[in-house]
Design goal:
The structure holds two protein chains of two kinds. Chain A is an alpha+beta fold. In chain A, strand 2 and strand 3 form a beta hairpin. Chain A has eleven helices and 15 strands. Chain A starts with 15 loop residues before the first helix and ends with a helix. Chain B is an alpha+beta fold. Chain B has two domains: about 120 residues, no CATH class; about 110 residues, OmpA-like domain (60s Ribosomal Protein L30, Chain: A, 2-Layer Sandwich). In chain B, the strands form four sheets. In chain B, strands 2, 3, 4, 5, 6, 7, 10 and 11 form an eight-stranded mixed sheet that branches. The longest helix of chain B has 20 residues. Chain B is globular. Chains A and B meet through strand 11 of A and helix 1 and helix 3 of B.
Chain lengths: ~525, ~290
C-alpha cells in the first residue's frame, strides 16, 4: 500500500533513453514508505522535491520491500530503517516529509516515537510541542553515555573535559531519568538523520580506496589509528556517522536497531547481511531540475543523476583540475546564442544553467580565507589558509572529505552556531541545549576556542573524549540535497541559501548576491 | 562559585606551567647563524599563496609558504610558534630574511620565488595554548612573487587517484631475536607524532614477528635552547602524555595480547644545544623478544 502515491511516479531506469526522448518529465508525487507495507520498488524511482525531482536507483534491480528487513518493523515501536531514510527524501528525511507525516497521522506515526522522535521521552507525547525539534528542524534525539569510558572498539577512554548544562530547553539533559545527573548518565544532543545512499563513497576501507588515509593512520595529523571493522580487522574510513562512532554499516545497523527501533534482541546475521547488502546498492541524486531539465537527457553534465554515482569509481580526489569534484559542466556552457529568442522557458533554462556553471566555478575555484576550523586548518595547511570550498569537500562525486571527515566549522560551537547571539539566525527562544565544556589542565585544548567551550553538540568529542574534537562533525554528502532540507547536522540551515549564508558569515567570504544564488543553484542540481 | 574555582585552578596551573617552561640558561647559546625563538606568526598574502613570517629582535624572518597537507605545516594565527631555524642566506623573501632547517630533517622546498627555489623550511611548532595577540594578516603585496608547488586553488597534479604504498612489510627475522628500539619525534609540547607515526607500526610489526615478550615505551620531555639564551622546556607532563598516546596507538595497531606493555616518562638527559633539540623531543619503543 503506497501512502499518497501513484505507481505512475515510477520510471524504469532500464529505458533511460526512452525517458530522455519523452517530452514530459515523469510525474513525481510525494511518497511515504510505511514499515512492513511490502510491494516492489522499481530499479529507479523519482520523487518531487524542492528543486525538481530526486531519483533513487537500486543497482541490483527492482526491490522486493517485503523481503528486506530495512523495510520491516523490527522493534517494539513500529519503526523500520526506512522510517527515517525515505526514498522520497533521497534516503534521508526532509522536514517537509516529517511535518506532512505529523499532519496525516496526527502525530501517531512511529516516526514520532518517544525514545528519540520527541524532545525527551518524559514529555507528554500527544503534544506537538513535545516534538518541536523534530517538527521545526528535523532533529532526532541522540542519547549517548557520558562520561564515556570505552571507545566503540572497547579501548579505554578518559574524557579530557567536563560538561555542565547551561541551558536545557528540552529538559532532557537535566531530567532525573534521562539526564547527565541520572543513575545512568546520558547526554542528549539533537541531530539530522544521515543519508543511506551512495555508500560506496562513504563506508569504505581506509587502507585501499580512500585517498586521504595513510593506511592505518588518520591523515589529519592526529597521530591517530583509524577504527577497525571488528569482523575483517580492516581499518575503516570513519565517515558513516556524524560523530564517526560506528566503523561499519553492520555495526551501525545493530546500534540503530537498538536505539531507534527499540528491538528486544540484537539483529541476526541474516538480517544484518540483508540490510547492509541493500544499503550498499542504493544511489540517490537529483534527477530532474524543474528549470534545468531532466539529467538523463543527452548532453547533460556527466556527474548528474544517480546512475553516474553507480558507475564512477570511488576514492578519487576532486580537489584537482584533472579530476574535478563534480566533473565538467561544459556541455551547458555557451549555449545562450542558440536559444530561440521568443521562447521564455528556453531562456529561463539557459539562465539557470549558466548560474549553475558559475556556482560550480565559485565552489571549485574561488579562494577565501579558511580560518579557525579544527581538523581543517590544523591538518598541515596553516591557519588561515587561502583555499577553496573543494579543499575540504574533496571526494569526487560526493563532496565529502576523502579523509575521516570530521571538522569544527562552527555549526555547533559558539560563537558561530546558529543560535548564537552573534548570528542573524539567533532565536530569542533557543531550542537547543547549551553545554559548557571545560578542558582539564593536562589536555590539549581546542585549537581555536581554548579551554572553555560553549556548544550545542560536542560532536566527535562525545566519542573520543578529546577537547580538540569538540564541535567536530563528520561532513555529510552533497548529493540529493534538494530532497532533504534542512541542512547541517543540527538542521540550522533551513535551505541551501542558508548554507551559503552560513559559510559567507563564518569565513567572511564576501560573496556577492549573484554568487550566493549561483552556489545555491549549483548545489540544488547535485 | 564552582566555576570560579575551576577558573582559578586553571589559571594557577597554566602559570605554573609557563614558569616552568622557561628557565635561564647558563651554558652556551646556539651558533650565531641559528634563530630559535618563540613569537607570533604573521601572514603575508601574495597574489598566489600566502607567506608565513615571524619577527625576532626587530628582524622579520621568512618561514615558508602555505603548502598542501603532507608537506611543511605552516603556523596558526591565534597561537605563538616556536621557530628552530638557521639563516639560509640570499635575498629576502616576502620581506623576510629566509630561514631554513638546521640539522634536523624537515621537508623539501615547496616552491620558488623569482626563479629561486625556496629554502627547506625551518622546524616550527605551534604552541599549545591560544594567544589572541597573534592575528596579523598583511594584505597581498605586488612585490612578492611566489610560485608554490600547490596554489590556492585545486591541485594541478595529473592523477588524483593515489594508492598509498602498502605498510612496510613485516621484518624477516630469525632467532636469536634481538631487542630493537624505534624512535618517534614530536613538535614542541605535542603528543601527536604526526611525522613519524610509521615507526609505531614498525615496532608493532617487529613485536609480532618476534613474538615479543615486552614493549617498553618511554616518552621524553625535551627542551630547546633559544637564541636569547633561555631554555624553553616542554610541559612537565609531556613525556607521560607521549607514552600514554603511544600505548593507545600500538594497541590499536595490533600489539600482540601476549606482549607486556610498559610505559614511563623521562626528561632528556642531554643538554639542549639549539641545534639538535628537535630530534630529542621524542618517544622510544623498545621491543624485547
Amino acid at each position: 500500500m503506497l501512502s499518497g502515491a501513484s505507481l505512475l511516479s515510477f520510471t524504469s531506469a532500464n529505458a533511460p533513453q526512452a525517458a530522455a526522448r519523452s517530452a514530459a518529465v515523469p510525474a513525481a508525487v510525494s511518497y511515504w514508505v510505511q514499515p512492513g507495507q511490502g510491494g516492489v520498488a522499481p530499479e529507479r524511482t523519482r520523487f518531487k522535491d524542492s528543486a525538481g525531482q530526486v531519483e533513487v536507483l537500486y543497482a541490483h534491480g527492482p526491490l522486493d520491500m517485503a523481503g528486506n528487513p530495512f523495510f520491516q518493523p523490527l522493534g517494539t515501536n513500529g519503526r523500520a530503517c526506512v522510517t527515517c531514510h525515505q526514498p522520497a527524501s533521497g534516503m534521508g528525511l526532509s522536514l517537509e516529509a516529517i511535518r506532512r507525516r505529523w499532519k496525516e497521522t496526527n502525530g501517531k506515526d512511529p516516526l514520532f516515537a518517544a525514545i528519540d522522535g520527541s524532545n525527551c521521552p518524559n514529555l507528554p507525547q500527544q503534544k506537538e510541542s513535545s516534538h518541536s525539534l523534530l517538527l521545526s528542524r528535523g532533529l532526532f534525539r541522540v542519547s549517548l553515555p557520558w562520561p564515556r569510558t570505552r571507545a566503540p572498539d572497547g579501548a579505554p577512554v578518559e574524557p579530557e573535559f567536563t560538561i555542565e548544562v547551561v541551558r536545557d530547553p528540552t529538559g532532557c539533559n537535566t531530567d532525573p531519568v534521562y539526564g547527565l545527573a541520572s543513575a545512568n548518565p546520558h547526554i542528549s544532543v539533537y541531530r539530522r538523520p544521515r543519508v543511506v545512499a551512495n555508500l560506496k563513497y562513504v563506508a569504505v576501507d581506509a587502507g585501499g580506496e580512500v585517498y586521504g588515509s595513510l593506511g592505518p593512520f588518520n591523515a589529519k595529523r592526529l597521530g591517530m589509528v583509524m577504527d577497525r571493522d571488528p569482523e575483517s580487522g580492516r581499518f575503516m574510513s570513519m565517515n558513516i556517522m556524524s560523530d564517526a562512532r560506528t566503523p561499519t554499516l553492520r555495526f551501525q545497523a545493530q546500534e540503530a536497531a537498538r536505539d531507534h527501533l527499540q528491538v528486544k534482541a540484537p539483529l541476526t546475521d541474516a538480517q544484518l547481511r540483508l540490510i547492509v547488502d541493500f544499503e550498499s546498492q542504493v544511489y540517490a541524486a537529483q534527477g530532474v531540475d524543474a528549470v534545468g531539465d531532466d539529467f538523463s537527457l543527452p548532453q547533460m553534465p556527466p556527474a548528474l543523476g544517480a546512475r553516474e554515482l553507480l558507475e564512477t569509481r570511488t576514492g578519487v580526489l576532486g580537489d584537482n583540475f584533472g579530476t574535478p569534484i563534480f566533473k565538467t559542466f561544459d556541455v551547458w556552457a555557451g549555449k545562450t546564442g542558440d536559444v530561440d529568442t521568443a521562447d521564455e522557458s528556453a531562456h529561463a533554462k539557459e539562465r539557470f544553467r549558466q548560474s549553475v556553471i558559475r556556482g560550480y566555478a565559485v565552489f571549485f575555484n574561488r579562494p577565501f580565507w579558511i580560518s579557525d576550523a579544527t581538523h581543517i586548518n590544523t591538518v598541515g595547511i596553516g591557519n588561515p589558509a587561502k583555499r577553496t570550498c573543494v579543499t575540504c569537500h574533496n571526494l569526487q562525486m560526493m563532496g565529502t572529505d576523502a579523509s575521516a571527515g570530521w571538522a569544527d566549522l562552527g555549526t555547533t560551537n559558539e560563537p558561530w552556531a546558529g543560535e548564537s547571539l552573534f548570528s542573524p539566525a539567533y532565536d530569542s527562544a533557543p531550542q537547543l541545549p547549551l553545554f559548557r565544556l571545560v578542558c582539564k589542565p593536562e589536555a590539549r585544548p581546542h585549537p581555536f576556542l581554548g579551554r572553555v567551550i560553549y556548544t550545542h553538540d560536542p560532536g566527535r568529542a562525545l566519542i573520543s573524549g578529546k577537547c580538540y574534537d569538540v564541535g567536530s562533525i563528520v561532513m555529510g554528502q552533497l548529493r540529493g540535497l534538494a530532497a532533504r532540507a534542512p541542512y547541517f547536522a543540527n538542521g540550522s540551515a533551513e535551505d541551501l541559501r542558508a548554507v551559503v549564508d552560513f559559510y559567507d558569515r563564518r569565513f567572511n567570504m564576501g560573496l556577492t548576491e549573484r554568487e550566493r544564488i549561483d552556489l545555491a543553484n549549483f548545489m540544488s542540481v547535485l | 562559585m564552582q566555576s570560579r574555582a575551576v577558573w582559578l585552578a586553571l589559571i594557577a596551573s597554566a602559570a605554573a606551567m609557563a614558569a616552568d617552561q622557561r628557565r635561564p640558561a647558563h651554558g652556551p647559546r646556539p651558533p650565531s647563524d641559528y634563530r630559535n625563538f618563540i613569537a607570533c606568526p604573521i601572514v603575508q598574502d601574495t597574489d598566489t599563496v600566502p607567506c608565513w613570517l615571524a619577527e625576532y629582535q626587530g628582524q622579520r624572518y621568512f618561514l615558508g609558504i602555505q603548502t598542501d597537507s603532507g608537506g611543511w605545516s605552516p603556523p596558526w594565527l591565534g597561537h605563538q610558534v616556536l621557530v628552530e631555524g638557521k639563516l639560509a642566506g640570499g635575498a629576502r623573501i616576502c620581506g623576510g630574511i629566509p630561514l631554513m632547517a638546521g640539522s634536523a630533517a624537515s621537508t623539501p622546498p615547496s616552491g620558488s620565488t623569482d626563479g629561486r627555489p625556496l629554502p627547506e623550511p625551518p622546524i616550527i611548532s605551534v604552541m599549545r595554548e591560544l594567544d589572541a595577540s597573534c592575528h596579523t594578516l598583511l594584505p597581498a603585496d605586488p612585490r612578492y612573487h611566489i610560485l608554490g608547488r600547490r596554489g590556492p586553488g585545486p591541485n594541478t597534479a595529473a592523477s588524483a587517484v593515489r594508492k598509498f604504498p602498502p605498510p612496510p612489510a613485516p621484518p624477516l627475522v630469525s632467532p636469536p631475536y634481538q631487542p630493537h628500539t624505534f624512535t618517534l619525534t614530536y613538535d614542541f609540547d605535542s603528543e601527536l607524532p604526526a611525522r613519524s607515526q610509521i615507526e609505531a607500526l614498525k615496532a608493532v610489526q617487529y613485536a609480532q614477528a618476534v613474538k615479543a615478550r615486552q614493549l617498553t615505551i618511554i616518552g621524553y620531555r625535551g627542551a630547546t635552547l633559544l637564541s636569547d639564551g633561555t631554555l624553553a622546556w616542554e610541559l612537565p607532563i609531556i613525556g607521560r602524555l607521549r607514552a600514554r598516546q603511544l600505548a593507545e596507538m600500538v594497541r590499536k595497531l595490533g600489539l600482540p595480547q601476549s606482549t607486556v606493555l610498559r610505559t614511563r616518562s623521562s626528561e632528556d638527559t642531554q643538554p639542549a644545544d639549539g641545534v639538535t633539540d628537535a630530534s630529542r623531543r621524542r618517544a622510544s619503543l623498545t621491543v624485547t623478544p
